[in-house]
Each structure stands twice: as C-alpha cells, then as structure tokens.
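Structural prep section.
Before we set up the soaks we want a predicted structure of the protein with zinc ion in place, mainly to decide which crystallisation condition to try first. Input record follows.
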Amino acid sequence: MKWKNDAPYAVCLSHDVDRVKKQWYHYLVYGLKRPAVQFRSLLSKMEGNEPYWNFQKLVELEEMYDVKSTFFFLNESHKEMSANFMGRYDIKSMALQSIIRELDRRGFEIGLHGSYYSFNSEEILASEKRVLEGILGHQVVSTRQHHLNFDDKTTWQIHKKIGIKYDSTLGYSTKVGMEQPLRTVEGIVEIPITLMDTVNFTEDMYKECCQVAKDGGIIMLNFHQCHFNEIEYPDNVSIYTKFLAKAKNDGAWIMNVKEAGEWLDEQL
Ligand SMILES: [Zn+2]
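Run finished without errors. Recording the tokens verbatim:
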C-alpha cells in the first residue's frame, strides 16, 4: 500500500470515549481484584484528578509528537442495570460539549461512537450523529460501533445512508487484528482495528504489530480515553507512547481516521 510522502507504513490513532467519570461502584468492583491500585486511584481522585478524564494527557502527548488522533464520542441513550450501561455520560452536558469543541478547535477529529443498540438501527445512529454534529456545528464522517457490535447486512448500509464515510468497527478486543483497509460494497472505507488496549498485551502482540509495519500496512490503534491513566493502566500509557515513538522514528505517517479515510478513498 502506498502512503503519504512515501512513508514506509501508517499508524492511525483513535480513542473510544466510553466513560469520563469514575463512579463509586468502579472502585468496589475493581477493588476486589486489585485493592491497592484502587486505593491509590481513589486517593488521586480525592486530590482532584479524575481518573477517567484523560483528554489533556492525550492531547499533550500527541501534540508533543505533532499528531492529532480521532476521539469517538458515545451517546448512550439506553439505561439498563448492567455494566454495559452504568456510568455513561451525558454528551449534552456543558463539560462534554466544551471538551468536544475544544478538541475539534485544536484539530483533533471528533467521530461518532455508535451506542450499544445502534449498529442495526438507522434511527438511533442517525439521531446520535445529529446530536454530535449539533455540538460541533459541522459534519461527522468517521465512526466506530461501541463494543464492536456489527451486523454485516445492516451496519455499513446504515453508515452509508446517514453520511458516514469511514468506519473502524472490524477487529478484536482480545487479540491483534492483521486485516487491512477495504472498501465495502456500500462504499464505506473500513479501517480495521489492529490493537485495542483491552488485550492482555504481550511481546508477541508487539511483534505482530511490527509485522504490519514491515509489510507496509496501517496499524490502527484504539486506546480508550478513560483508561489512559498511569495508576490503573500503566501499560496502556507506555505501550501507546512506545508506538508513537517507534512510528516517528521510522518516518511512518501518523494520522487520524478521517485523514486515513480520505487518503484510502483515493487508493481503494
Ligand atoms: Zn466503546
């Protein structure tokens, strides 16, 4: 595959924004497994550091490397008593509207993180897109479905109908995905996930990602905004930083989903 400025490979940066505020029950549930870590996390929160609000940290890190990622914002309308739904945020709150506009103003891409039941509902996904576009004041073109929920008969059709151009839902939450971008029959540019921060990261996984680089492909990273904190997830921060440093050092093209999609639109 050919990349911008003849870069040897490409790295696409994305962050799903699933949660923005850690709740008391997160401390209880996660504290059962790692009480000392959760105690440190709680102390840090009491000092005013919200563990699930890591936008500034990501912005500073990426701006240091002169790159701008995509943040996929979720607008979960369903409220059920389950781990999938508890602790979600209100995208229309002042804090959320303000950070979305701030990221957009600074050149980061704002994408749509389709809610749990939106993957097969045009009505739900279209309404979530409208709300996000209302906050931004311009069109949204990139998406990833929450929980990677996907139906091969409807999801891309819905994307096409509502004006989504680029999707990054295919891939895995437990292993490295080696699949490369494709154009779907609906005309969507699909950029599958290579590495998500939910895997139990191993040296072999790093080697698999390096193989994608060696083959001249694109490494699509998905690191959740809420888990980008050193106290609870030190590996996430160090692995993401390692990829940025490697890519910069190798002269790879580092970009967000929209930039990758625009480029691939011409190539595929
Ligand atoms: Zn999600």
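Observations: The chain has one domain: 12-173+222-250.
Flagged for discussion at group meeting.
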